[in-house]
Automatic annotation (TrEMBL):
The lineage of its organism: Bacteria, Bacillati, Bacillota, Clostridia, Lachnospirales. GO terms for biological process: L-arginine biosynthetic process via ornithine. The gene is argB. It is found in: Cytoplasm. Residues 31-269 form the Aspartate/glutamate/uridylate kinase domain. Pathway: Amino-acid biosynthesis; L-arginine biosynthesis; N(2)-acetyl-L-ornithine from L-glutamate: step 2/4. Catalyzes the ATP-dependent phosphorylation of N-acetyl-L-glutamate. Its EC number is 2.7.2.8. The keyword ATP-binding applies. Belongs to the acetylglutamate kinase family. ArgB subfamily. This is Acetylglutamate kinase.
């Protein structure tokens, strides 16, 4: 027997998936969830559209999603177009005045492209940067004591603009730019921004969407994926030098978020279609989960 385009078994399987989602929907209803959408996982419009559809689903079942986005790859592309070389120290972009200008322009474009996609599927979204509503106050960051230009560390998040938007049913979409007390612009690593926002909003969950399956002991050996680790293990692998590149600020931020009250932190492969739905609504553990304490 067939029902529409499906066999009875397929229909039952679909219904079971919905039933499986029920406890998770109940658990996260009314909760704030922060999704950090990394530039590395914005490979094409189709993928972006699917991520936005997942966010729509989170919103429609009663969660309060907030998006903090990156755009590092796109910034590097434009930095190279003006004849410069993109340079990073500890996963943070060395940002001179010209690079700052490029970063703000590119992040503004990424921001509005995400807002457009949301509007296309009927979601209410507002794109802002940390400058809007005085949301982020920053000070210059000196990673390892080094001066890397206009790179900011968030010292305060004024959540009033976010809470107003959320109360009015909008999804805030945040670009990681902020100003210091002298109103100088700063480029902020999007992982740092997501962690600060999740902490300030006391989010239930912080999810990083990136371009790798999760955290690996050895990224060249897929069998070394860490599916769960506690804060101590996370600190340990950082100390051992196992984690590099853009994963370093991500993992440091996972630890900071957990230490500052965020209940759950996950690192997921944003290239995997509907990874957010799989993570939120099914029992399948995907990516790397960072836990406060060991489970056993
Ligand atoms: N131990 C590790 N496990 C996983 N990824 C790692 C590790 N060490 C370095 N990386 C790198 O970190 C990258 C993710 O960070 P990044 O490129 O900044 O992504 P995003 O744009 O999502 O912030 C991965 O693509 C990978 O190359
Ligand atoms: C200071 C710093 O590193 N800023 C980042 C901001 C964008 C970002 O973090 O984007 P992803 O999340 O895609 O990496 C940068 O200029 O690349």
């Amino acid at each position: 027997m067939v029902i529409g385009d499906y066999t009875v078994d397929q229909v039952i399987e679909k219904a079971q998936t919905l039933i499986e989602a029920m406890p998770y929907i109940k658990k996260f209803q009314g909760k704030t969830v922060v999704v950090k959408y990394g530039g590395s996982a914005m490979l094409d419009e189709n993928l972006k559209y699917n991520v936005i559809k997942d966010v729509a689903m989170l919103k429609l079942v009663g969660m309060k999603p907030v998006i903090v986005h990156g755009g590092g790859k796109e910034i590097s592309k434009w930095v190279e177009k003006v004849g410069k070389e993109a340079e990073f120290i500890n996963g943070l972009r060395v940002t001179d005045a010209e690079t700052m200008e490029i970063a703000e322009m590119v992040l503004g474009k990424v921001n509005k492209s995400l807002v457009s996609l949301m509007q296309k599927i009927g979601l209410k979204a507002v794109g802002i940067s940390g400058k809007d509503g005085g949301m982020f106050t920053v000070k210059k960051k000196f990673p390892g004591g080094k001066d890397i230009g206009y790179v900011g560390e968030i010292t305060n998040v004024d959540t009033s603009i976010l809470t107003s938007l959320i109360e009015d049913d909008f999804i805030p979409v945040i670009a990681p730019i902020g100003v210091d007390e002298n109103y100088e612009d700063y480029n902020i690593n999007a992982d740092d921004a997501a962690c600060a926002v999740a902490t300030a909003l006391e989010a239930e969950k912080l999810v990083f969407l990136t371009d790798i399956e999760g955290v690996f002991i050895d990224p060249t050996d897929k069998s070394t994926l860490i599916s769960e680790m506690d804060i101590h293990e996370a600190k340990d692998i950082i100390e051992k030098g196992v984690v590099g590149g853009g994963m370093l600020p991500k993992l440091n931020n996972c630890i900071a978020a957990m230490e500052n009250g965020v209940s759950r932190v996950h690192i997921l492969d944003g290239r995997l279609q509907h990874c957010l739905l799989l993570e939120f609504f099914t029992q399948k553990g995907i990516g790397t989960a960072i836990l406060k304490e060991p489970l056993f």
